[in-house]
Design goal:
With 358 residues, the chain is α+β, with helices and mostly antiparallel strands. It has two domains: 1-74 and 318-358, Malate/L-lactate/L-sulpholactate dehydrogenase, four-helix barrel (Hypothetical Oxidoreductase Yiak, Chain: A, domain 1, Orthogonal Bundle); 78-188 and 231-303, Malate/L-lactate/L-sulpholactate dehydrogenase, NADPH binding domain (Ribosomal Protein S8, Chain: A, domain 1). Helix content is 39%, strand content 17%. It has helices at 15-28, 33-48, 59-67, 96-114, 131-136, 192-201, 221-226, 235-250, 287-302, 318-330, 336-348; strands at residues 11-13, 78-83, 86-90, 116-124, 143-148, 169-173, 181-185, 210-211, 217-218, 228-229, 261-262, 266-267, 272-279, 332-334. The strands form four sheets. Strands 2-3-4-13-5-6-7 form a seven-stranded mixed beta sheet, with helices on both faces. It starts with 10 loop residues before the first strand and ends in a 10-residue tail after the last helix.
Length: 358
């Protein structure tokens, strides 16, 4: 299964080649080697899971942020305050991935003793796909939760002004013998990055994804880029986006809503906020028993009857996990526009592009 139309059959490269190139690009922008490696890893990990809207498609944008738009390539996150169960981190105007990994690592470390720990982040920037941070907790047998605010691209329910971000949420839950359950989605019908991919390919959008600038439904990707994303579930999606945006910004004192910037002029650097949480399963129940219960829930769902038009029922994160396994074997597909942008960005920094296919 392809994450986007036309992805299969296009140029494929190995994870190692793509990681090396993207890492070199960010290092050339002035990032320390370990930060460049981490930032590249998060983008390649998104592509591996088929989340191309948050993968290396973002490299040209990130290079502009690091070289022109005010993000500090050498920014270092730091703990501002720490109390039992609560951590506040300042990202130091680094790329959001740097502060996010720092914060989630700290939350996981403290959750070994304090059981439930939340980390609120300020002074940050765009942080990519949220599943990466939620899944960090799985290695410790913990449940991970990750959320962030985002530039306003949705209107409040019944309105037509861009005031609400899609403010995604990710949750990773360990299982026993089955794969973990990994949910990662925004509270919009799609991401802005997905619309960019459809626009690159000249394809119409699915019904229900977007509105034009006047608040009318549209399947035209260009009109959608100038317009509004639609919330999932109507007023419910709008309300959840509002709630998780406030959690991501309010607890750390980060910017929210229009104070983040806008889609026309771009984001303000160093004002984003995120929210991360690690829950130590062993503090509530024997981890083996928890894993057994999660396995039972998964097995029951898999054994259930399919509706007309479906031949399989997927658990959250299962498509992405199977996509990663396939891409590790066959290579990561890159469409022509992404590949061209990546090559042009590398050459502008004096870096040779020699991506290798598997």
């Amino acid at each position: 299964m392809s994450a986007y139309p036309g992805t299969e059959g296009e140029f494929r490269t190995s994870r190692e080649s793509l990681q090396a190139l993207v890492e070199a690009i960010f290092h050339r922008c002035g990032m320390p080697a370990d930060h460049a490696r981490r930032l590249a890893e998060t983008l390649v990990a998104a592509d591996l899971r088929g989340c191309h809207s948050h993968g290396v498609l973002r490299v040209p944008d990130y290079v502009r942020k690091l070289t022109v738009e005010g993000v500090d390539p050498r920014g270092e996150p730091r703990v501002v305050s720490e109390r039992p169960g609560a951590i506040v981190v300042d990202g130091g105007n680094s790329m959001g991935q740097i502060g996010s990994v720092f914060a989630m690592r700290r939350a996981i470390e403290k959750a070994r003793e304090q059981n439930v720990v939340a980390a609120a982040v300020r002074g940050s920037n765009h942080c990519g796909a949220m599943a990466y941070y939620a899944m960090m907790a799985l290695a410790e047998g913990m449940i991970g939760i990750a959320a962030t605010n985002a530039l306003p691209t949705m209107a409040p329910w019944g309105g037509r002004d861009r005031l609400v971000g899609i403010n995604p949420l990710a949750v990773a839950i360990p299982a026993g013998r089955n794969r973990p359950i990994v949910y990662d989605a925004a509270f919009s019908a799609c991401s802005h990055g997905k619309i960019r991919i459809y626009h690159q390919k000249g394809l119409p959008l699915p019904e229900g994804w977007a509105l034009d600038a006047e608040g009318r439904p549209t399947t035209d990707a260009a009109a959608a880029l100038e317009g509004l994303l639609r919330p999932i579930g109507g007023y419910k999606g709008y309300s959840l986006a509002l709630i998780f945006g406030i959690l991501s910004a309010g607890l750390s004192g980060a910017a929210y809503g229009t104070r983040l910037g806008n889609m026309n002029d771009g984001p303000r650097p160093g004002v984003d906020g995120h929210f991360y949480m690690a829950l130590n399963v062993g503090a509530f129940i024997d981890p083996a028993e928890f894993g057994r219960q999660v396995d039972e829930a998964i097995d029951e769902i898999r054994a259930s009857r399919t509706a007309p038009g479906f031949d399989r029922i997927y658990l959250p994160g299962e498509i992405e996990a199977e996509t990663e396994e396939r891409y590790l074997r066959e290579g990561i597909p890159l469409n022509e526009a992404t590949l061209a942008d990546l090559g042009a960005t590398a050459r502008s920094l004096g870096i040779a592009t020699d991506l290798k296919t598997p």
